[in-house]
């Protein structure tokens, strides 16, 4: 995800590298490339312009810092402004005490609204809440059935009726919630292919008559500026409380993630990272900004890993990383664990040191991982512990054993060494320093 903007911003910022002085000319040149990179990532024109102006103002304001290299200064400022652009975010869902909290979910057809209702219900359920899903999308023929299936999978009740009136479905659902002691009611409202008057009227009616506590828009990140425009229209009609941006896992550009808050004033609270019901994550602008700037999203990875790895083992591995003692044996263990953690590509992209870059653009991550694993399995434990001993003949043997070319074995080892070096250097650094290390 985010490959386009990563590459664009990466090369824009790297073009500033090497300059020892911070001149207006080299800064302007760098900022022009930053702006271009944002536009290529489908960031709205106004947002891109405002962003660059803010970076420029901040940079000029800080010119006194003569000891800092221009590249470092710009990277630092771009990072801060990216975080400001997308945040701040409070990704908790505030719940009422005493009466059910009603979340009205809206969005265009195909945005992932029904799936996201299920994801949200699952998340709240896992936090000890008692959600009720309500099938109020009476437009899309299969929507009710889809929600029923999701509810069954999750063991969460679904209220549905054979009705043409979404308002009364929602009103009845409130009675059901009370009688069944459900404390969060999630309304899956109708979507249409485009924003139109009829849709908005229906949603406004539900809004007026049912009085939801929060109105949440589900928007498809892959639709870029269209997602931003529809967020604007929904917000004009309904005063949104939050946006959930779906399909970020497949979004190479990231324009919607960067523009929505600036254009609408509504924060993105969660992001959809896959089709599965556990693929909903809190939106973290700092993690997103560092990922865009190519340093991997260490915190998200740690959160994920904590779910899958027992803590003692994780600590042991981390200590090894910090001491630079992490070897290919540990790497192989990690890969196995990663296999249990979910989507390969999204996990690898979160790894610092560009582990995700080991995968080609069109590569199938699962296949690539099999390949890497095959190479590791063709090494002896000693070779994995001390990759230095792998010379030309061992390389040929490993390649033969795993069905790859010798240079691929070499590539794996080189990238592993790089990753290990970066991890070691980063272990004692602040977030900012880590980023400078990688970009500057
Ligand atoms: P609705 O018409 O808005 O209710 O959309 P659906 O919930 O039926 O979702 C449309 C399609 O998007 C389905 O194939 C979902 O599996 C898929 N989808 C939803 N969220 C995500 C996501 O975060 N990532 C990916 N890759 N697919 C998603």
TrEMBL record:
Role, per record: Involved in targeting and insertion of nascent membrane proteins into the cytoplasmic membrane. Binds to the hydrophobic signal sequence of the ribosome-nascent chain (RNC) as it emerges from the ribosomes. The SRP-RNC complex is then targeted to the cytoplasmic membrane where it interacts with the SRP receptor FtsY.
Highest taxon above the source species: Bacteria
All copies of domain SRP54-type proteins GTP-binding, residue ranges: 267-280
GO cellular component, one term: signal recognition particle
GO molecular function: 7S RNA binding; GTP binding; GTPase activity
Organism: Kolteria novifilia
SMART domains per record: AAA (SM00382), SRP54 (SM00962), SRP54_N (SM00963)
Protein name, UniProt field: Signal recognition particle protein
PANTHER family (UniProt xref): SIGNAL RECOGNITION PARTICLE 54K PROTEIN SRP54, SIGNAL RECOGNITION PARTICLE SUBUNIT SRP54
């Amino acid at each position: 995800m985010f490959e386009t903007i990563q590459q664009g911003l990466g090369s824009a910022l790297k073009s500033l590298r090497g300059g020892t002085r911070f001149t207006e000319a080299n800064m302007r040149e760098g900022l022009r490339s930053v702006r271009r990179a944002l536009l290529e990532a489908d960031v709205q024109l106004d947002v891109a312009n405002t962003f660059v102006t803010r970076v420029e103002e901040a940079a000029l304001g800080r010119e006194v810092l003569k000891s800092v290299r221009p590249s470092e200064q710009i990277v630092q400022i771009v990072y801060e402004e990216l975080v400001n652009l997308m945040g701040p975010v409070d990704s908790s869902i505030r719940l009422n005490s005493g009466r059910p909290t009603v979340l009205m979910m809206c969005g265009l057809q195909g945005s992932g609204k029904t799936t996201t209702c299920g994801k949200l219900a699952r998340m709240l359920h896992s936090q000890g809440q008692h959600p009720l899903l309500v099938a109020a999308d009476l437009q899309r023929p299969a929507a009710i059935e889809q929600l029923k299936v999701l509810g069954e999978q999750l063991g969460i009740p679904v209220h549905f009726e054979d009705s043409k009136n979404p308002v009364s479905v929602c009103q009845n659902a409130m009675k059901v919630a009370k009688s069944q002691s459900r404390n969060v009611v999630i309304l899956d409202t109708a979507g249409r292919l485009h924003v139109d008057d009829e849709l908005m009227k229906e949603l406004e009616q539900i809004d007026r008559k049912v009085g939801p506590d929060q109105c949440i828009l589900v928007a498809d990140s892959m639709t870029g500026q269209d997602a931003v425009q529809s967020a604007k229209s929904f917000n004009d009609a309904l005063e949104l409380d939050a946006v959930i941006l779906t399909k970020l896992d497949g979004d190479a550009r990231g324009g919607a993630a960067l523009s929505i808050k600036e254009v609408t004033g509504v924060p993105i609270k969660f992001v959809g990272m896959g089709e599965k019901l556990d693929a909903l994550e809190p939106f973290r602008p700092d993690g997103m900004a560092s990922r865009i700037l190519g340093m991997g999203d260490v915190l998200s990875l740690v959160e994920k890993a904590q779910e899958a790895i027992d803590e003692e083992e994780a600590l042991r591995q981390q200590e090894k990383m910090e001491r630079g003692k992490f070897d290919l044996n540990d790497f192989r263990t990690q890969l196995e664990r990663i296999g249990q953690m979910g989507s390969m590509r999204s996990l690898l992209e979160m790894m610092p040191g560009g582990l995700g870059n080991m995968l080609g653009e069109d590569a199938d991550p699962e296949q690539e991982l099999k390949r890497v694993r095959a190479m590791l399995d063709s090494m002896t434990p000693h070779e994995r512990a001390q990759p230095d001993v792998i010379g030309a003949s061992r390389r040929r043997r490993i390649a033969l054993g795993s069905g790859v070319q010798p240079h691929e074995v070499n590539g794996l080892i080189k990238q592993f060494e790089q990753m290990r070096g970066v991890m070691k250097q980063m272990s004692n650094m602040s977030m900012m320093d880590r980023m400078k290390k990688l970009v500057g």
